[in-house]
Design brief:
Largest sheet of chain B: 8 strands, mixed
Shape of chain B: globular
CATH topology of chain A: Pyruvate-ferredoxin Oxidoreductase, domain 3
Order of helices and strands of chain B: EEHEHEHEHEEHEHEHEEHHEEHEEHEHEH
Largest interface: A-B, 23 and 27 residues
Strand order of the largest sheet of chain A: 2-3-1-4-5-6
Order of helices and strands of chain A: EHEEEHEEHHHHH
Shape of chain A: globular
CATH architecture of chain A: 3-Layer(aba) Sandwich
Number of strands of chain A: 6
Radius of gyration of chain B: 21 Å
CATH superfamily of the largest domain in chain B: Thiamin diphosphate (ThDP)-binding fold, Pyr/PP domains
Helix content of chain A: 25-40%
Number of domains of chain A: 1
Low-confidence stretches of chain B: none
CATH topology of the largest domain in chain B: Rossmann fold
Structural class of chain A: alpha/beta
Strand content of chain B: 15-25%
Distance between the termini of chain A: 16 Å
Oligomer: heterodimer
Mean pLDDT of chain B: 97
C-alpha cells in the first residue's frame, strides 16, 4: 500500500480510538504493512470531539503525524465540520450519514455514507457502530484485506462481545460492497490515483 | 548473561504505544518493583505496570510524590529487586536528588523520563527533548551517567531492557529519555520469546562475609553487591566513602571515589555507546539526531539525497556518555554537522565541543510542542552542503 494518511473522528464514547487501533493493527500485524497511530491527548471525554490519526504504508513510517489525510472517517457533525476541509483532493470522506449533514464538500473529495448507528442497533447494540464503520471502510477503500481487518476486530474487542462485533463488521462491509459508492470509487481512491505520500512535491 | 524470566515476557506481536512497550521491556528485563507519581505523558507506563505486575509477581506503589518514588526504588534495589520509576519533566527535576544518591551508592536502577515541553509544567501533552542536559548534569557533583533515547515503540521495548542491563553491568542509574511522541504513538511491537532476551544479572558477591568489602573493586572498576538479608554487614551512604562503605571525609578518598565513578563509565564508553550510522563514509554533511527527531531527520535526509546531496546519518541511541570520539573522527573529514532537536540547542553544544572547529555545526532548534517539519531540517542540510 502506498503511504496513506487516515483520520478517524467522532465524539468520545463512539469508539473512535478503537476503530483506529483496529485498522492499524490489521495493517501492521495481520498484514505485512506498517502503521503509526497517534491521537490527540486533549481534555477529551464522553461527548466531546475526539480523533485518531493513522499513517499506513508498506514501508516503515518515518514522520509520525498526518499532514493532509487521504481518508477521513467522520462519525459526528463536529468531526465533519472540523476535519473534512483538510482532506486532500482525490480523497474520501466516509460518514455516519444519519449523524452528519454534508454541507460543503471539499473539492475533488468523494463522500460515502452509511447509517452505521442504525445498523448497529439492528445488530443489538448501538455501541458497535465504530465496528460497522471499520467494515464499511474496508469494503469501500479495499486498502486492507477483509480477513486481516476481521482478525483485528476479534483481537481488539472485549471477551464475550466478539460475535456481535464480527457481525457488525460484516454488516458494514456488506453495506460498503452493495453501495454505489464502492463501484464509483476505484478511480478516486488515493492509491489508484498514485497520490504522493506525505510531503507531496518532494522528489523521493 | 542469563535469559529473561518468562513470567515477565509477553511474547508476540502487539499494537501498543511506546509507554506500554516500555512497561513490557521493563518487565522482560526483570523489573518487579516500580514506584511512581503518575504524570502525563508517562502515565501509561505505570498504569500498565500496575495492571500487569500482580500476575507476574511484584509490586507497584503509587507514592506521594516523585521524591518518594525515586528513593523507594533505591530501597527496593538494596532489598533485592530490579526497580524503576517513571516521570516527565516536573517529576524529573524532583528526582535529581536521588539520582545523585543512586550514582554515589552505585545503585542499579532505571529512571524513565517521557519528555514533554518545559520548563515547569510547560506542555503536559506535547513533546519536548529539552531535558537532555538535565539528564547529564541535573544532580549536583561530578559524575557520569548513561542515557538512552528510543525512536519508536519497538525501541521503547528493546532499549528499556538494554537500560536495565547497562545499569546492572555498571551499577549506575540509567536514564531512559523518551519523548511524548514516541511514548504516545502506537505501532507494532514484537516481543521475542524469553529465551532470546539476554539479561545482565546483578553483580552479587560470592565472597564470604568476612572477606567482603562493599566498595572494593578489581580490574573493571565496578564493585560487587549484596542485598539486605543476605547475611552481610554493609553500609551505604551518600557521603564520600571508602571501600568499606563508611564515610571518609578527606580529599584522597574523594579523589579516588569520584574518579572511579567517572572512569567506570568513560573507560567503558565503547561498550556502552550504541549508534546508528548510515552513509557516513561518503558524507559531506552528517545529521546528528536522537529520539523522535531522528525519524523526522531520516525523512529530511532522504529528501536531500534525492537532490543529489551526500548526507550521512548519525543517530544517538545512547546520548550519554556522548560519542566524543565518533564526532572527532567525523569532524576531520565532513563539511558540516546538522543537529535538529526539540530544544533550542542542547546536544548541539556537545557536537560543537567535539568538532572543535574542524567542521561547521548547524543547529536546527525547535522549542517543542510538535516535531520539526522535514523541510526545516532539509533547508539546513542544503545550507550546510553549500
Amino acid at each position: 500500500m502506498a503511504l496513506t494518511e487516515l483520520r478517524v473522528a467522532g465524539f468520545g464514547g463512539q469508539g473512535v480510538i478503537l476503530a483506529g487501533m483496529i485498522i492499524g493493527k490489521a495493517a501492521s500485524i495481520f498484514e505485512n504493512g506498517y502503521a503509526t497511530l497517534t491521537q490527540s491527548f486533549g481534555p477529551e471525554a464522553r461527548g466531546s470531539a475526539c480523533s485518531a490519526q493513522l499513517v499506513l504504508s508498506d514501508e516503515p513510517v518515518l514522520y509520525p503525524y498526518i499532514t493532509q489525510p487521504h481518508i477521513l472517517i467522520a462519525m459526528s457533525q463536529d468531526a465533519y465540520n472540523k476535519f473534512a476541509t483538510d482532506v486532500r483532493p482525490g480523497g474520501i470522506v466516509l460518514i455516519e450519514e444519519e449523524l452528519v449533514r454534508v454541507s460543503e464538500i471539499p473539492p475533488g473529495v468523494k463522500i460515502c455514507g452509511i447509517p452505521a448507528t442504525r445498523l448497529a442497533e439492528q445488530i443489538g447494540k448501538r455501541l458497535v457502530l465504530n465496528i460497522v464503520m471499520v467494515g464499511f471502510f474496508g469494503a469501500v477503500t479495499k486498502l486492507i484485506d477483509r480477513e486481516a481487518l476481521r482478525k483485528a476486530v476479534a483481537d481488539s474487542v472485549p471477551p464475550g462481545t466478539t460475535e456481535m462485533n464480527l457481525q457488525a463488521f460484516d454488516r458494514g462491509y456488506e453495506y460498503g460492497l452493495e453501495s454505489r459508492c464502492a463501484e464509483q470509487l476505484p478511480e478516486s481512491l488515493p492509491v489508484e490515483r498514485g497520490l504522493e505520500g506525505q510531503f507531496a512535491g518532494s522528489e523521493s | 548473561m542469563i535469559t529473561a524470566d518468562p513470567k515477565g515476557v509477553l511474547t508476540g506481536a502487539h499494537f501498543i504505544d511506546g509507554d506500554q512497550a516500555c512497561t513490557e521491556g521493563c518487565l522482560a528485563a526483570g523489573a518487579r518493583f516500580a514506584a511512581g507519581y503518575p504524570i502525563t505523558p508517562s502515565t501509561e507506563v505505570v498504569e500498565r505496570f500496575a495492571r500487569r505486575i500482580p500476575t507476574v509477581g511484584g509490586r507497584f506503589i503509587q507514592m506521594e510524590d516523585e521524591l518518594a518514588s525515586s528513593i523507594a526504588i533505591l530501597g527496593a534495589v538494596w532489598g533485592g529487586a530490579k526497580a524503576f520509576t517513571v516521570t516527565s519533566g516536573p517529576g524529573f527535576s524532583l528526582m535529581m536528588e536521588h539520582l545523585g544518591l543512586a550514582v554515589m551508592t552505585e545503585t542499579p536502577c532505571v529512571i524513565v523520563n517521557v519528555q514533554r515541553g518545559g520548563p515547569s509544567t510547560g506542555l503536559p501533552t506535547l513533546p519536548g527533548q529539552a531535558d537532555m542536559m538535565q539528564a547529564r548534569w541535573g544532580s549536583h557533583g561530578d559524575y557520569e551517567i548513561i542515557a538512552l533515547s528510543p525512536q519508536s515503540p519497538q525501541e521503547c521495548f528493546d532499549l528499556s531492557i538494554t537500560a536495565f542491563n547497562l545499569s546492572e553491568q555498571f551499577r549506575v542509574p540509567v536514564l531512559f529519555m523518551m519523548d511524548e511522541v514516541v511514548g504516545h504513538m502506537t505501532e507494532k511491537v514484537i516481543i521475542p520469546p524469553a529465551e532470546e532476551i539476554e539479561i545482565y544479572p546483578r553483580r552479587l558477591t560470592v565472597k564470604p562475609p568476612e572477606e567482603y568489602l562493599p566498595y572494593a573493586v578489581d580490574g573493571d572498576l565496578v564493585p560487587e553487591m549484596v542485598h539486605a538479608g543476605m547475611g552481610y554487614r554493609f553500609h551505604i551512604t551518600g557521603l564520600t566513602h571508602d571501600e568499606r562503605g563508611y564515610p571518609a571525609m578527606n580529599p584522597e578518598a574523594q579523589d579516588k571515589l569520584i574518579r572511579r565513578l567517572k572512569d567506570k563509565i568513560l573507560e567503558n564508553a565503547d561498550r556502552i555507546i550504541t549508534l546508528e550510522e548510515e552513509g557516513l563514509d561518503s558524507a559531506d554533511v552528517v545529521v546528528v539526531s536522537y529520539g523522535i527527531t531522528a525519524r523526522v531527520a531520516q525523512r529530511a535526509i532522504e529528501l536531500a539525497r534525492a537532490k543529489g546531496l551526500k548526507v550521512g546519518k548519525l543517530r544517538l541511541v545512547t546520548v550519554w556518555p556522548f560519542p566524543e570520539q565518533k564526532i572527532r573522527d567525523l569532524a576531520g573529514r565532513v563539511r558540516a554537522f546538522v543537529v535538529p532537536e526539540l530544544n533550542l540547542g542542547q546536544i548541539v553544544r556537545e557536537v560543537e565541543r567535539c568538532a572543535a572547529g574542524q567542521a561547521r555545526v548547524i543547529s536546527v532548534p525547535h522549542a517543542g510542542g510538535s516535531v520539526h517539519r522535514p523541510e526545516q531540517i532539509l533547508e539546513r542540510i542544503e545550507e550546510a552542503a553549500k
